[in-house]
Amino acid sequence: MNDKAFHNIDIPSFQHDLIDWYQSNKRDLPWRKDQDPYKVWVSEIMLQQTKVDTVIPYFKRFIEKYPTLFDLANADQQDVLKMWEGLGYYSRARNLQNAVREVASEYEGVVPANEKELGSLKGVGPYTKGAILSIAFNQPVPAVDGNVMRVLSRVLKIEDDIAQPKVKKEFETYVHELISNEDPSSFNQGIMELGALVCTPKSPMCMLCPVQEHCKAFAEGIEEDLPVKSKAKKQKKIPYVVLLIRNKHNQYVIEKRPDEGLLANLYQFPMVPAAEIGMDHMENWIQMEYGLKIKLTEKKGKLKHVFSHIIWQLEIMEADTDAEEVNDGRIRFVSHDELRDFPFPVSHQKMMKYVRES
């Protein structure tokens, strides 16, 4: 461990200043109403890679529909994905439900307050585990995310590359040294809150910071240079043509995505890999792939959808078919009104404006 990181830092004073500021300045968020481990768990999963303002209405609706762990465990997965629709990173919802089902069956519905048991659940990584144990059970366990690494890289002047997994592990060690044993819940939430409200990625508001006097980066005027983070690889661009295939009953063809991988178990309009299949061969490809005879009609628009590792470049086209039923298990016909019952990824929700009511 980097012992220099703690040189000249008064840990009790740092804890006091941080927790005192948090208690006075924390935002009024729906998952902070109580310390129910189930609600803390749901909120932490939703907050992964998603902004707080986006999560608030989703969290409220989700808890209204699934107020207890057993309600979520017993729910139909398609309904859960529909509730999650628009939040993205859908594997979070599937993993959450699978883990909740395990808690329902193996732990009689009681979220384990034990590091090993909690950490063995699907989708519960070191951060989520630390957040649940500290916030819901008041245990002094680190919960290290990007916010925490940013704050502590500045306070402790850590110049290691935070994109490296081993460095994240080192930050967990630093939090172990710093965390308050009396109020670990407020300590962990305080660092997260500080990173969200004051110690922001760009233009941190150091003059408002409650731990400014402890901050080595501020003392040296290098707060904007930290944390050090190597650039991620460039995202690969993949072009698709998305087909809005309609029959004379105004039914549309939708396809269920595979059980594993990107956007698993969600529904979409059929997507044709444009780089491999030219426009001239599109109708043939659909017939070969799905046994469905179609006729392309007109172009409707273009969309770009950005994932963490790839970018979909989507061209949307209308097509007609005389078919009234399908023989391929991946696809089905649904009416205009039925479309809203199925969970779609954001990119395909945006195409609904091109879907005709009659």
Describe the structure.
It contains 14 helices and 7 strands. The chain is an alpha+beta fold. It has a domain at 236-354: Alpha-Beta Complex (Nucleoside Triphosphate Pyrophosphohydrolase). The strands form 2 sheets. The chain has a 4-stranded mixed sheet with strand order 4-1-6-5, covered by helices on one side. Strand 5 and strand 6 form a beta hairpin. Helix 1 (11-25) crosses helix 11 (184-197). It is elongated. The mean pLDDT is 94.
The structure class reads alpha+beta
End-to-end Cα distance: 66 Å
Text of the CATH class of the domain at 236-354: Alpha Beta
Q: Mean of the pLDDT scores? A: 94
Number of strands: 7
**How many DSSP helices?**
14
Strand order of the largest sheet: 4-1-6-5
What does the main sheet amount to? 4 strands, mixed
Keywords:
358 residues; Nucleoside Triphosphate Pyrophosphohydrolase; 4-stranded mixed beta sheet; 3-stranded antiparallel beta sheet; 7 strands
Write the layout of secondary structure elements.
Blueprint lengths: L10 H15 L11 H11 L4 H14 L3 H5 L3 H8 L6 H16 L8 H5 L6 H10 L10 H10 L9 H14 L5 H14 L18 H5 L15 E11 L4 E6 L10 E2 L2 E3 L8 H9 L4 E12 L3 E11 L10 E5 L10 H4 L9
Helix pairs in contact: 1-11, 2-3, 2-8, 8-11, 9-11
Question: What is the compact description of this entry?
Answer:
With 358 residues, the protein is α+β, with helices and mostly antiparallel strands.
